[in-house]
From TrEMBL:
Protein name per Swiss-Prot or TrEMBL: mRNA cap guanine-N(7) methyltransferase
Source species of the chain: Linnemannia gamsii
Annotated residues for binding of S-adenosyl-L-methionine: 98, 116, 138, 167, 189, 194
PROSITE patterns in the record: RNA_CAP0_MT (PS51562)
Gene responsible for this protein: ABD1
Top EC class for this record: transferase
InterPro entries assigned to the protein according to its UniProt record, in alphabetical order: mRNA_G-N7_MeTrfase_dom (IPR004971), mRNA_G-N7_MeTrfase_euk (IPR016899), RG7MT1 (IPR039753), SAM-dependent_MTases_sf (IPR029063)
Length: 352
């Protein structure tokens, strides 16, 4: 259940059997139970931009701009066109997993801050959660325009929503959000890893997560699993700098050193991400920093583990079918299933 605490370390969580594979492409599924393929708090130091190497180095600015440009350039192709994607099942699986996280932790009439809202793909999920108030922020201004339009065209949207184009890793959320607004939940889906470019950015991210999050409020998200990525890279031959399959690739410049911040790699995901720079999130460092900002870890699971648990619950199991993760035509391919396991899901609760 959502309130059950799970404080497994990152290493323990990721040392699971990775041999599990989904049914082969084209496998049919006829039964809803069948598996688819496959305390004292230290006061936090306020971040200052003048300390940040990324602010001081023009080369690092290029990374910031490259990420924004990448997401600004990706069109919103619509529901029917998305079904033609080569990774349609994996995208559906990722959306299902986010629905599980939101379903576990969101409550009716919640006030939600979504950092990295993108084009607003999760707005319907928040609508179904019956939240009351929503603020979405993203570094990509064109994505924010599309999110705003998506919200405008929602039928009888049950919550008030506002959208802001800003870099939540370099500027305080108070620049766009009134200080009297208190959030029940903060969500960061597939974007937190960009903050681990530097410690200053990571601290600004956590400042923005916690500064207006109420005591007892929840911070949820999804990130690449650095432990699994590095372990898989180390299992390759000594001269290899890349891992992946036909769906994804992760490419490093070196493999002999992985720092807590600034460990950059280039990520490609077919029909989604085009060789974009990202950063490893050293989870013990992330957890330690989060504790400084008054957050306690309550959930930390690999995507495969989330599936194994949630698929046993009737509502989430049926949602696998409604969201096209599984259908009579099959489910995730083996390569999609492996690519999904690059990620983990987490939840923190703000201490009272």
């Amino acid at each position: 259940m959502s309130d059950k605490q799970d404080n497994n370390s990152s290493n323990n969580v990721t040392k699971q059997d990775l041999s599990t594979a989904p049914p082969a492409p084209g496998t049919t599924t006829s039964h809803p139970d069948q598996k688819p393929s496959a305390n004292t708090t230290k006061r936090a130091r306020s971040p200052t931009a003048s300390e940040d190497p990324a602010v001081q180095q023009p080369q690092q600015k290029k990374v910031h701009a490259q990420v924004a440009d990448h997401y600004n350039a990706r069109p919103d192709v619509g529901v029917e066109k998305r079904k033609e994607s080569t990774i349609f099942r994996m995208k559906s699986f990722n959306n299902w997993l986010k629905s599980v996280l939101i379903g576990r932790y969101a409550r009716p009439r919640d006030r939600v801050l979504d950092v990295g809202v993108g084009k607003g793909g999760d707005l319907l999920k928040w609508s179904k959660a019956k939240i009351q108030y929503f603020i979405g922020c993203d570094i990509a201004s064109k994505s924010i325009e599309q999110a705003r339009e998506r919200y405008r065209t929602m039928r009888n949207a049950p919550f008030e929503a506002h959208f802001h184009a800003m870099d939540c890793y370099s500027e305080p959320i108070s620049n766009v959000v009134a200080p009297d607004i208190v959030f029940d939940m903060v969500s960061m889906q597939f974007c937190l890893h960009y903050s681990f470019e530097t410690e200053t950015k990571a601290r600004m991210m956590l400042h923005n997560v916690t500064s207006q999050l109420k005591p007892g409020g929840v911070f949820i998200g999804t990130i690449p699993d650095a432990y699994w990525i590095v372990k898989k890279l180390k299992s390759e031959s000594d001269d290899k700098l890349q891992i992946g399959n036909s769906i994804y690739s992760i490419r490093f410049e070196r493999r002999d050193r992985f720092d807590k911040f600034g460990s950059k790699y280039w990520f490609h995901l077919e029909d989604a991400i085009d060789d974009c720079p990202e950063y490893l999130v050293h989870f013990p460092t992330f957890q330690k920093l989060a504790e400084e900002y008054g957050l306690e870890l309550i959930y930390n699971k690999k995507f495969h583990q989330v599936y194994e648990e949630a698929s046993q619950e009737l509502d989430f199991n049926q949602l696998l079918y409604r969201m096209n993760v599984v259908s009579e035509n099959g489910s995730l391919s083996a390569d999609e299933w492996e690519a999904a396991n690059v990620y983990l899901a987490f939840a923190f609760r703000k201490k009272n």
